[in-house]
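PROTOCOL LOG
Step 1. Enter all chains and additional molecules of the complex.
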Amino acid sequence: MVQNNPKTMAEKIIQAHTEKASVIRGDLVDANVDLVLANDITAPLAIEEFTRLGVEGVFDRERIALVPDHFAPNKDIKAAEQCKTMRRFAHEQGISNYFEVGRAGIEHVLLPEKGLVLPGDLAVGADSHTCTYGALGAFATGMGSTDIAVAMATGRVWLRVPESLKVIYHGERRRWVGGKDLILYAIGLIGVDGARYQAMEFTGPTIADLPMDGRFTMANMAIEAGAKAGLFAVDDVTLDYVRGRSGREHSIYASDPNATYSRIVEIDVSKVEPQVAFPHLPSNSRPLSEVGEVTIDQAVIGSCTNGRWSDLVEAAEVLRSRAVHPHVRCIIIPGTQSIYARAAREGLLDAFVEAGAFVSAPTCGPCLGGYMGVLAAGERCISTTNRNFVGRMGHPDSSVYLCGPAVAAASAILGRIGGPGELGLA
Amino acid sequence: MRGYRITGDTYMAIRGKVWKYGDNVDTDAIIPARYLNTSSPEELARHCMEDIDSAFASDVTTGDIVVAGANFGCGSSREHAPVALKACGVSCVIAASFARIFYRNAINIGLPILECPEASADVRVREDLEVELDRGLIRNRSNGREYHAVPYPRFILDIIEAGGLVEYTRRRLAQSTAGG
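Step 2. Run joint prediction.
Step 3. Record the structure below.
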């Protein structure tokens, strides 16, 4: 019987959100969503389409999250107008999860922190990095503004149930190797469309030992391999994270042992060095030892990929009592207000400022070349963000190198791409 | 269905000269993020493809067809990317494959797209193409060759027929209201 076929967690979560007894990869389904997200760039277009739909109100005012983070605090008059459009809509519709500047942060760091996404959820967002929540064992995927308008109105989206690609990580992580290195390495192996239309499932003994923040980083970048979602099995690490964050119940779905995968990729982590992805694709990853001499003008530590607490702790380990290279601007951006506050309380902000870094409150800012660190022609930036496309952080002739927080911090001190090892940090 | 439904019974013929690009044309290339402080189609159109082809926005003419390699539209979820292409007058994008969010967005806003590795490999810049969307037929008027695109699933065709996701959803909502 079809019902007894082994299934992946992607299939199980989607099935649980439909009225169907069984769904399988390739099926087109209409699914109920638990959470719908938009930000200051994508919400205005979604609101326009929502109005065209001619419905009275949103499907559920508690299941929509609106976060001004991309060009907020307002970077210019047009951005201010966009934020205003979203703010007005949130107030008119009585959206309870509208997060104002000063009480917000970067959407994909903020929403899990607020307990708005839980294991087993189906979440959609008008932002490609919505796949971040797969770290919690939720099926979360990015869509455009029109899809999100329809989801806000109806609480439903159409989905093609994806095939799954499994990545198995074995072996112990070397010092300074974190979630960012594990995902950059995998994208380097399979390419920027290696998981196109598929769900990536991150498994193996290394993952069991990986803290929650590293899992968020990995799920976040599943889209950079073209994936629809990046999923982790729910374990004690997940449950410890979600405990106390929400009054809502959650469900745990695990892939069956003999579920069907389009591809299985095995990675021996003990051989993986810290990674650096060269311009202009996230798949151009190289081990740190093969980077060569690359001088930099700027280092960015932050974003929905690496703006979490443990990312800042790692950066502080490297930057504390050292000095940012005279030719480098080092920009550090905590992901949310609560991370920012904790960094102040625990002395991280002091360490950064004393090292000569610029520290900002939460915003997406430079990651997408918005503001707060836009690059000039010919400039090179080492960055913990997620994309290094042509012109991503500014001028089309500038370049972005992607890495984890330790390498970004060490490079800021060295004035060229390098690791903490060169600073005598074991 | 001869061309692409714009509104009501107005169809747009899909015929024009080719703009050719390679693999992994990302959404930052289609419309750089620095211009996302607006969602005005006309303003976005002025900067379309700017960082990889500075001639595109000024020289593209209505009906022109973009032909690209694999994974077209990878990267961000910004619907501004297909909106910008459409506002430039691009009548169709043909690629060896599309990134999934771009695929959804294009269908949803009514920018015709076709997946056709054969055409992607064979067609050259400035050739003259004609597309019959419902049959997935691409005709190269410069050399007489024909290519067949991967057919749309029925459900996607329904959205296209309706003129985009908003109109499709409006109809469905009206039906469910009428049905009590």
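Step 4. Note key features.
Chain B is about 35% helix and 20% strand.
The helical segments of chain B are 27-30, 41-45, 56-59, 80-87, 100-109, 117-122, 154-162, 165-178.
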